[in-house]
Structure formats: C-alpha cells, structure tokens
Amino acid sequence: MKYTALLSLTLGLVFLGYSGNAKTFIKTHSQPVNTNQDKNEIRLLIRQVLKWTASKSVIDLHPVLSKNNICIGFDLKKHRQNLEKLRRSGFFADEFIDNYNKIIQTLDKKIKNHKFEKWDIRELPPFNFDNDASAWCLCQDNLSWDNVDIEVVKLSSNAGALKWNWGKLDSGTDPSWKTFSYHFRVVKVANRWRVSYLEGFDYKESVL
C-alpha cells in the first residue's frame, strides 16, 4: 500500500512538472504577430498577385469547350493545367486552388446538364463567375497595382482577413475608386503568406 501510494504521488508530480513545462514551452514558442512586417508582406503579395493576373502567365478562368460558338462545357485537361499553374505561381494556398477547382467542376456539370441558358462564347456567360467584371479584382479597368494598399480586418500569426483598396489618391481621381475595396484572406504556408480566398472567387456567388 505504501509503495502504491508513493508511486502514485511520484507519477503525479512528474505529470504536473511535465504539464507546467509544456505550458511554458507553448507560451515561449508561440509566434507573436508582427503587424507591420506581416502587413508589408501581405501588401506585397496582393500586389504581386494582381500584377500576375495582368501578365501572360495568368490562367484562362473559363477553359471553354465549344461547338459552333456555343459552350458545351469546360476543357478539364486545360483546367488541370490551370490548377498546376496556380500551384507553381507560389501565390496561392491549397484552399484557394481547391475552391477554384470546385467552381469550374460545378459550372461544367451545370452547363452539361443544361442548368443555364445556351452560352454563345462571344457574349458574356450566363453565370456570375468572372462575368463582365474580372474575378481577380471585381473591376473592368484599374489604376496602377503599385497603388494598392491593405486594411486588416483580422490578423493572427498564421491567418488573416483583409481588404485591399487604392490607397491614397489624388483629389482629381474618380470618387468611385476612393470608396472601392476588395476582400481577401491569407494563410501562412512554410513561413510565407499565401492567398486562401478572393472575393471574386466566392463559391456560392460564382456558381449562380
């Protein structure tokens, strides 16, 4: 009995000591948010993404298959190549790529099941995704991407919700640019910020 009680007491003290050390380790090694540094990195990231979308490297968001100019679905081979381009760019987290894949797969099924009106590819698509305004910025034209600034909605050491806008503009600038903002989210992957969500790629809105 004495031996059993002594053993239980010893194990209890060991457990308490380990628990205390674990808490100390977590507290000591948790990464604080360096707001200024993270904001600078995220601002640079979203500017790079927007410049990429205006380059020859950008993907065709509508990899259309057509017959007599009528869309009959999406080219899923080209779509897989698009997914690989997104991965190779280094700008996007898996969440964003998976969401874009889900948008295209859903729209492809709806088109093939005649859930939309017939789409003459020389005209705007019958669904919301990348229709009229670019999904990348929800705009038809733009100012210099170097003007883009960000506003933090919520930011932790490994994830953030933000908005980008055109920053400080001249007094003569079109007032609509001054009130414009675009929501996006980021996550940290291998110590680098990557885009996990863009407002123009919202799944529920895109597939309508």
Low-confidence stretches: 1-30
Q: In CATH terms, what is the fold-level topology?
A: Nuclear Transport Factor 2, Chain: A
What's the CATH class label?
A: Alpha Beta
What fraction of the residues are assigned to beta strands by DSSP? Answer: 15-25%
Helix content: 40-55%
**Which architecture per CATH?**
Roll
The helix count comes to: 6
- Secondary-structure class: alpha+beta
Main sheet: strand order = 3-4-5-6
H/E element order? HHEEHHEEHEEH
Rg, Å, rounded: 24 Å
Instruction: Give the domain tally.
Output: 1
Task: Provide an overview of this structure.
This protein is an alpha+beta fold. It has a single domain (34-206), classed as Nuclear Transport Factor 2, Chain: A (Roll). The protein is 43% helix and 18% strand. A four-stranded antiparallel sheet has the order 3-4-5-6. The longest helix has 28 residues, at 2-29. 17% of the residues are buried.
